[in-house]
Each structure stands twice: as C-alpha cells, then as structure tokens.
Amino acid sequence: MSKVVLSYVIGTTVLSSTVPLTVHAAPATSPVSAATPIEHVIVIIGENHTFDNLFATYQAKHGQRVSNLLSKGIIKPDGTPGPMFGKSAQQQADNRQVYKIDPTHTGAYATLPQPQTTYATGLPPGVPDTRFPANLPNGPFQITRYVSYDAHTGDPQHRFFQMWQQYDEGRLDLFPWVATTIGTGGQNAAPAPTPANTFQGGESMGFYNMQSGDAPIFRYLADHYAISDNYHQPIMGGTGANFLALVTGDLAYHNQNGQPDTPPANQIENPDPQGGTNNFYQQDGYAGGSYVNCADQNQPGVPAISRYLSSLPYQTHNNGNCAANTYYLVNNYGLGYKADGTPQPLGPTHFTLPPQHIPTIADALSTKGVSWKWYSGGRNADGTTSSEYCGICDPLTGFTSIMTSSLKNNLVGMDALDHDMADEKSMPAVAFVRPPESQAGHPANATVPDYEKFVASLIAKVKNNPELWKKTAILVTTDEGGGYYDSGYIQPVDFFGDGTRIPLMVVSPYARKGYVDHTYYDHVSILKFIEANWGLQPLSARSRDNLPNPIIDTRNDPYVPMNRPAIGDLMNMFDFQHHRNDRDQDDMRSNVR
User: Fold this and answer.
1) Would you say 41 and 534 are in contact if contact means Cβ atoms under 8 Å apart?
2) What is d(CA 88, CA 485) in angstroms, rounded to the nearest whole number?
3) What is the mean pLDDT of the chain?
4) Which of 219, 264, 279, 494 could covalently link to 95 via disulfide, CB atoms 3.0 to 4.6 Å apart?
5) Residue 560 DSSP class
6) pLDDT tens digits, residue range 456-482?
7) DSSP of 506-544, one letter per residue?
8) In degrees, to the nearest 5, what angle opens at C-alpha 355 toward C-alphas 354 and 359?
C-alpha cells in the first residue's frame, strides 16, 4: 500500500498502608533545584497502541537486543508469519456461570475472526471490515498490507476484566476470543453489543511494519535517542484509569468528601457471564459497571484475580493494594469537574467519578515550588472545550485540590503550550501534553501518522529554542495499549495490573543514543523520575512510586525483575556524563515515508 509522506522538522532539519488517603494543600516552599541537568520534563501521551503494534519489526542499533515480534521469530521482516508464528496462536475458550481469567480452552482459531468496523472507518459500524481478508492466519497480521498507513481502522476492546482474560495468566492467547464474546463499550453503549454481535473481530492482532515504512518518525527517534522495550500501562483496561494512575500512582475510588462509600448498584462491575452465554458479562462498560471492591472476595470477578495473585512466587504490592470497603474505578467514567471548574452531577444516572481527594504529582510539585502544567488539546483559555478535547484524558480535573484552588489555572490548552515553548523561562519544570483528539493516535477516530506529526512538531519547537532544548527531556508514550496484542512480559504488581507493554521514547540531549532499555517500567516510572529529579517523596503510603527499582539478571532475563514487584525510575535511559547538542546532527529530510 502507498505510504503517507511525513515531512516535519525536528530542530533545524526535517524530520505500605492500604487505607485511601486524602490530600490537603500545603503552602509552597522555596523552589527546589533539579538533581540532573534536566530542568524540564515534557510528557506526551497519545492513545491506545502497544509496543508490538508499533515496534513489531524494529531492529535495534549497535547490535542490541529488542523484544518484539520480529526478534522472537513470530513474524518476518516483511510482516508475514515467521518460523515461531505458532507461539502467538490465539485460542477459543468456554467461560460460563462465573468469571475466570483462565477459562477452559476449546481449541485454537483456524483463522482469525475477520476484523470489524467501528464508527470512524467510513463503513457501517459493527460489520465485517471487508478491507481485510476473512481468512487471516491465526496470529499477528500487518495492518498496512491491506490498508494505507493513514487509514482509519477498527477499535479493539480494552477494558479491565477483559484485559485480565486476554492476559490469560501470562499466555497472552485470548485477545480475539475476549473481544468477540464481550464487545467494545459495554452493554449500555450505542449501539450496544449483544452476544450475537459484539462488533469485534480479530483487529487486536494487527501491527504496523517499520521495515516497510510505517511509523518512520518513531523509528527515527528510536534510532537516535532512547526507547524502552519493557514499559507498561499500569492498569489493566482503558484510558481513564491509566491517566489517573499517571498522576497519582494509584487508583481513584467512589467517595463522599474523601471517605470511601458504595456506588449506585448499576455502577458496580459484574463480569460473571449472563445466563446462557459464553462470557458475556452481566454488568460492564463505560455507561454500566465500572467500580470494583477488590478487598471483598464475595464480589463478582474478584476471586479469580486474587487466586492468581496468590499463586505468584512473590507478594504483590501491599498484598494487592485493595483497601477494605473501597470501590475502585477500573474503566472510563467522566471526572468530577468540568474543565472550567464546575462540579459535575452525580448519582446512578450520571456515570461520573466523584471528586477525588488523594495525592497527585501536581500537589507534590506545587508544595515543593516546582512549576507544572497540563496541556490539553481542545481546551480553550476561558475553560470551554471543543470536540478536540478528551475529558478523561485531563485527569487532574477529577481532583478537589486542583479544581477548587488556583492550581486549576495550570490546566491549559495548546495555545499556551506554543507560547511557553517559545520562552524557556515560561516553560514549566513538568509538562504533561495530551494532543488534540484527532492527533492523539486513537484507533478509529485518529491515526498513528497524525500522532507522529504532533510529536515531531513539538520536538521541533523545543529544539528551535536552544535554551530550552539543552535542559529538556521529552517522554513520548501512549496511555494504554488499546487492546492490541503484545508479546512482552507483564509483571503483576497488584490487583489492578500491570497491563500490556506500550511504547516509551526519551528524546533529549542526554538520552542514550540509539539505546534500547530493558528495565521494567510503567507510567509510575515517570512519577519516580520526577520525584528523583526534584527530591520529592512518594505520593502516599500506598502509591506505586514506593516500589523499588528493579534488580536485573542481565545474563539470563533482563526483562523480569529479581525483586518483584519493582519498577524503574527511567534514569537508565539517560547519560548525564555526555551532553549532546544535536541540532546540527538530526536529519529527517531523507525519504521519511
């Protein structure tokens, strides 16, 4: 298929207590200095792609190893099945009466279920996507063998209890089966999936191929800066819970004035199958059940995950990190405040997370006098928003300490980002950037090349300000894997995750050039880096930033921490002994197609 031309400029060239905690605002102290030469961290968060989905055929520089579909022999460089293709074979299963994360297998698929359409593919939703064959081999397939790189595709299922089943206790072999037995959006979606039509097929097994020209900007960044092939979404499931984990290292929960309480009955998850169905959940989805009391073994779905965690050869974080009588949000609900600070209505007909009172990285930075901002596409200066705005991707709007104080002024839009990047003194020490909806890369309503172009444009603006560039680290990732298959190791940290691998690229004069880091990371590693760089303590007694850095057996398995559970702080991705001024070294002019 033809490739879209990407011609953006980079630089001058083309291119442990388990009790929920409440935070109370504290007065800022004198600003603290950074412990490294990095005085500005910019975190760009796109959406819904796993590491293998984007880096399936990436080949590392300098003779390094990278863990992906190509290195494992699952596929060949041209994207066709490789000698170990069978390792990725997907299974069918039987799960009736009670939820299981390891249902009984009933045999491998002969061929993948045909991918299905969703709302933005240009085809009617919930029908077979005839651009793809009905007889795809049972395993990963190259998306761009059938559609162009800039084409809209279907949107794989990606929710909490579903991802635990896809994981299948580490077998990673139930991605299509889970999608086709449950569907996307939940029973109250529009249109609502049914056991007879879940609007899902085998789209979760798709990947892009850097060897044939896909993801050229991300490939360039990997070649010239540092990437991780062991970075993960922290929570099984979708956007909302993972964005909240990114700012708290923890889970949000249903509460009244900071005290845990019980949600409306129609908002509590029940993944037990409906009578007469194979795995079609009783109560689930973004306008259905999304809260879980994981400390109560009588709650539906809880025993299956708890039994698995108990079988592990190590004790998980805070013994699962489940506080008593606490209902945690594990799927997408709206947040407690509108963008302008107006409280959102609550109750059984409003699928809204009550305002949160747990500590955030924003509170911690403000207390230390370290500047920060959250930049959201589609947010206007007056607090209004456009269709480019993603409310659940603006997580600090869920917190009382932010939205009822002057700190809400730190939640701004793209115009403010352009202004701040032009003047190093205006740029905050810590910046989180969520692109406009159409440029965030979410399958169905956006594309990967649009996300690449956004990333390249932002890097270019930073590098065109030499004073800013020489002090900056730009971290490029996605919020979660979007339900796409990934072959990488997952470390169960607690009841909630980790989830699948996702990309992480570190772009900085101090990034280790062309380096692939195997240290185990997740989104909370970003919090650990910020805390290490500015001398902050962990956010709370139960947040994951309390976990130690991994101890690695580099000779046998560099991907699995010997001291599980453990997550790194990203420092291995930098070389602070050597400063690079590569404004004159970067060259993306050459055939970026």
Assistant:
1) no
2) 9
3) 91
4) 279
5) S
6) 999 999 999 999 999 999 999 999 999
7) EESTTBPTTEEE-S-EETHHHHHHHHHHHTPPPSSSSSG
8) 130
